[in-house]
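Incident review: delayed structure delivery

Summary: a single-chain prediction request sat in the queue longer than the usual turnaround. Root cause was a stuck worker, restarted by the on-call engineer. No data loss occurred. The affected request and its eventual output are reproduced below so the record is complete for anyone auditing the incident later.

Affected input:
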Amino acid sequence: MSLHPSVAAVRVAVRRTLAEVVAEQPGGRPAPDAAVLVACSGGPDSLALLSAAVFECRKVGLRVIGVTIDHGLQDESAAHAARVVAQMAVLGADETASARVEVRGGSRGPEAAAREARYAVLDEMAQHFGALAVLLGHTLDDQAETVLLGLARGSGGRSLAGMRRRFGHYCRPLLDVTRTDTVTACQVEGIEYWNDPHNIDPAFARVRVRRKVLPVLEDELGPGVTGALARTADQLRADMDLLDQLAQEAYEDLREPEGLEVKALADLPLATRHRVLRLAALEAGAIASELFHVHVVALGHLLAARGSGGEVQLPGHVTAYLTSVKEDGRLMFRPTAVQG
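Output delivered after worker restart:
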């Protein structure tokens, strides 16, 4: 009996990722009892990923640890997490685990807070199980939505480069696989999946992109827009990685205890300079999630207007200032004085 194309698409994607992970191990083979974690929400993407991981990991000698995170954001979330744990076991996971996290929205909103809490727990679990990798179920459609949101928000090249296929011990095997394929794979394999109510809630910008914006683009510009957006991310990512590397090298050359030399900063190409300024601000204590392009531009203006003094307030109670208004001035950072 031939394998359904959607099931094959998911398995091939997982196989390729596992091959990369295994090839990085000493001798090109995993140690006995080596494992990978699969983050599973109970939706079609993560369940299709888990099923494929169970199938493919057995062939290369890896154990599968299925992990689900209860964010506590919906009624009966604990009961849902228990169902996912049971389902992961039925699908063949060698071991299962669940964790409940507390999500505090703050100024960034519940989505960002939930993501931060989720990754913190996954990091802990990866360390606990000694996992070689953590597999995430983001698909080509998720990638397209990310690119479109970045474009609409004017977030710059890094945002348009979309989600990374690999970062640290995290892997996204399904970035070339469509959501239609993951849903179909579940249906073909008889896997019952959960439809997260948040995925149809128009209060979330990503949901509006998914249900309204992308369908309009497909209707008006023709089919293939989703794939084209994902390919754009792939093309830009290599460029962004190179620019980030050049900026890191420049920053390492320029950083000194007495600050960054203004003239040396001004001599850098604009793209490199902006990245160096961001790196300097982050090292000084600025909050990464709240440090936006407007702050980096303000730092650039501070350098350009060195004859008039001034300073720039950054998120995280950090203040940037110049030690001198002359050509040999230095860009420095200090804690912002907080009143009250």
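Verification: Residues 225-254 form the longest helix (30 residues).
Action items: add queue-age alerting; document worker restart procedure.
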